[in-house]
């Protein structure tokens, strides 16, 4: 049914992504999911890839927080959608702002890949500190990350560590790790897995202790809000569990309304009894304050659970954090 609807769309359908290897992998993975759902949409006949360079990819010498934050990975892609240069876009959900531009909607979320953060040690590095939080990391280690969320959790647990900025896509960061004197870096395990590099991870961290970014490990697809043919198709390939956890995590993030300088984490999972269990984190970038709180409730209330946990964290965080 949806396959027929989508055939009425002018062909080929143009799929937009960032120009990174991970983004291209995710776009092809998405096409595989669509093809599995609707065999007539398999192959290249109906789709054309359009890799777009975003400000977040081009500006690599500064922290995201300094150059304007998360929207930077998606702005050019939203513009291409609204200008009809592409028909839909495949994103890492964690790089997609919670409030999308008018006329663009999150049409589907795919099944979540592993949402955890991982520690990658530089080749030939020193041994870790047994028993310590982040036990893989040696005493005084220099950790390369440009994420204030990762930085705050590292420094809170291990004040002996030093955090330095490192940017670029996953491959670039792994190369720079070896070349530039870092002892370790922290990356999304999902990205490593998708690129077939999960064996470089020395440790994978419990997401209820070291809280990942909202949406980490989930691929999200955006379309123009009035494109009913594509909305129908994408609703059919949606993973409802990924939608529920993404809704809770993104509602938490939106309620905190932090700048990208505010360390915020959110991680939801669905328990065996069907309840949604949400962990939220807010911290000061230097790790001198860190608040983590957990709540659960019915999956159908994902949005409200996220909003309320966000409001509670906001109430209990010191004023300077969300100033
Ligand atoms: N911020 C960059 C980014 N966006 C998505 C991923 C990994 C894949 C994912 O979380 O879906 C990464 C790399 C990282 O954080 O290490």
From TrEMBL:
Single GO MF annotation: hydroxymethylbilane synthase activity
Keyword Transcription regulation: no
SUPFAM superfamilies noted in UniProt: Periplasmic binding protein-like II (SSF53850), Porphobilinogen deaminase (hydroxymethylbilane synthase), C-terminal domain (SSF54782)
GO cellular component: cytoplasm
Pathway: Porphyrin-containing compound metabolism; protoporphyrin-IX biosynthesis; coproporphyrinogen-III from 5-aminolevulinate: step 2/4
Protein keywords: Porphyrin biosynthesis, Transferase
This enzyme's EC code(s): 2.5.1.61
Cofactor(s) the record lists: dipyrromethane
Domain Porphobilinogen deaminase C-terminal: 246-313
InterPro entries: HemC, Porphobilin_deaminase_cofac_BS, Porphobilin_deaminase_N, Porphobilinogen_deaminase_C, Porphobilinogen_deaminase_C_sf
Modified residues (S-(dipyrrolylmethanemethyl)cysteine): 260
One Pfam assignment: Porphobil_deam
Gene Ontology annotations of biological process type: protoporphyrinogen IX biosynthetic process
Residue intervals of the Porphobilinogen deaminase N-terminal domain: 13-230
Similarity annotation: Belongs to the HMBS family.
Protein's job: Tetrapolymerization of the monopyrrole PBG into the hydroxymethylbilane pre-uroporphyrinogen in several discrete steps.
Further information: The porphobilinogen subunits are added to the dipyrromethane group.
Entries under HAMAP family matching the protein: Porphobil_deam
Protein name: Porphobilinogen deaminase
UniProt gene name: hemC
């Amino acid at each position: 049914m949806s396959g027929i609807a989508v055939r009425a769309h002018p062909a080929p359908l143009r799929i937009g992504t960032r120009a990174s290897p991970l983004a291209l992998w995710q776009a092809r993975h998405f096409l595989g999911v669509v093809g599995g759902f609707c065999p007539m949409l398999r192959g290249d006949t109906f789709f054309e890839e359009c890799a777009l360079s975003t400000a977040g990819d081009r500006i690599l010498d500064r922290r995201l927080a300094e150059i304007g934050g998360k929207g930077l990975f998606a702005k050019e892609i939203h513009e291409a959608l609204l200008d009809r240069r592409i028909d839909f876009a495949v994103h890492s959900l964690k790089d997609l702002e919670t409030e999308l531009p008018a006329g663009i909607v999150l049409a589907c979320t795919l099944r979540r890949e592993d949402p955890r953060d991982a520690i990658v040690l530089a080749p030939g590095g020193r041994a870790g500190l047994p028993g310590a939080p982040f036990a893989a990391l040696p005493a005084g280690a220099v950790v390369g990350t440009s994420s204030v969320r990762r930085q705050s959790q590292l420094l809170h647990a291990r004040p002996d560590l030093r955090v330095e900025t490192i940017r670029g896509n996953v491959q670039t960061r792994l190369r720079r790790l070896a070349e530039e004197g870092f002892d370790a870096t922290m990356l999304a395990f999902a990205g490593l897995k998708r690129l077939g590099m999960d064996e470089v991870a020395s440790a994978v961290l419990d997401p209820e202790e070291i809280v990942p970014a909202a949406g980490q490990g989930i691929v999200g697809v955006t379309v123009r809000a009035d494109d009913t043919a594509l909305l129908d198709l994408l609703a059919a390939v949606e993973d409802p569990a990924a939608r529920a956890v993404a809704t809770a995590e993104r509602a938490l993030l939106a309620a905190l309304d932090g700048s990208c300088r505010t360390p915020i984490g959110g991680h939801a999972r669905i328990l065996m009894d069907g309840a949604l269990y949400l962990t939220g984190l807010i911290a000061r970038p230097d790790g001198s304050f860190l608040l983590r709180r957990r709540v659960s409730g019915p999956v159908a209330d994902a949005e409200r659970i996220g909003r309320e946990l966000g409001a509670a964290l906001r109430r209990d965080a010191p004023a300077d954090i969300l100033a």
